[in-house]
Amino acid sequence: MLKFLCLNLIFLAPSFVAFSQTVEKKVKWQGFSGKNDEFYFQMIEGFQVITDGNYFTKTKDGNQAQVDSRRTLARYINGVVLMLEFYEGDAKDIETALTERQKGKLIKNELVNGFQFKSYVEKTPEFVWETQYFSLKKRLYVLQAVSRADNNQIVRNFLESVRLVNQKQFAAPNSTNNVKPDSLTVLPEIVENLPERVDDSQPLQDKSDRGVIILYRPRPRFSAAARQARLSGKVKMKVLFSSSGKITKVEVVSSSGRELDEAAIKAAEQIQFLPAEKDGKLVSTFKTIEYSFSNN
Q1: Number of domains the chain contains
Q2: CA Rg, the chain, in Å?
Q3: How many angstroms separate the CA atoms of 7 and 13, rounded?
Q4: Does residue 228 sit in the same domain as residue 93?
Q5: Gap between the Cα atoms of 71 and 154, Å rounded
Q6: Which of 228, 233, 270, 286 is 20 to 30 A off residue 41, Cα-Cα?
Q7: How far apart are CA 265 and CA 258, in angstroms?
Q8: Domain of 127, in residue numbers
Q9: Residue 2 included in any domain
Q10: Which pTM does this prediction carry?
Q11: CA–CA separation, 162 vs 172, rounded Å?
């Protein structure tokens, strides 16, 4: 039978990727179980962990879905982005809000071992984006994988590692014919090709080969004074997305006053992202970020 690791997804501590000049590095897959050991998956070590919650997301018909908490695991490796998001709250409405923004084609919509399972695929000349939703009661798990070609082996391993557990019954929703649902898929080590990094003193002026991928953009927090004064407005900033994987410079180019500017800067400094690439190297690049504040 499948044995779960004692480490639970909802208790993960932040662990950020450290880029180095090493040309090659062997990395392993790590297994994690979701809440109540109901959802199992594997992620390549060296991932980022992002946490937030206590906010509303809206559907097209105007309904508000309460997000009590959200946990995100993200990893970029060899031109592939892997992500898992775990939501607690109004799961059905959260899923509705997320899927309404989908550009891909719905290829699966079925009940699997008590989970409602939906799978979308978006294909462009530049990438293949696969998104899968697994909802159960007030919990939603979302897998995302972005690669430059169909049938990428890293993506296949990521998706095939999923196990759904309900009343001691196991299901492998993405399994091939030779994968047993009640067994743990043993995934091979991966040789990671780490690109060189160009420091912040030389931010990219030309178009990158692969642009910045923003994984998490936090909402700005109103201070008590700003909330009491019912302030509103927009703050536009010039932000340096460093090749180190950190926000290293934020410059306000359009202000709405000190209170809102400070809130916007603090939010921008917490953006999580994957750096841009040019000629096989990680590069620093500027992007314009805008936050809108409403007193409603």
Answers
A1: 2
A2: 20
A3: 11
A4: no
A5: 22
A6: 270
A7: 10
A8: 9-193
A9: no
A10: 0.78
A11: 6
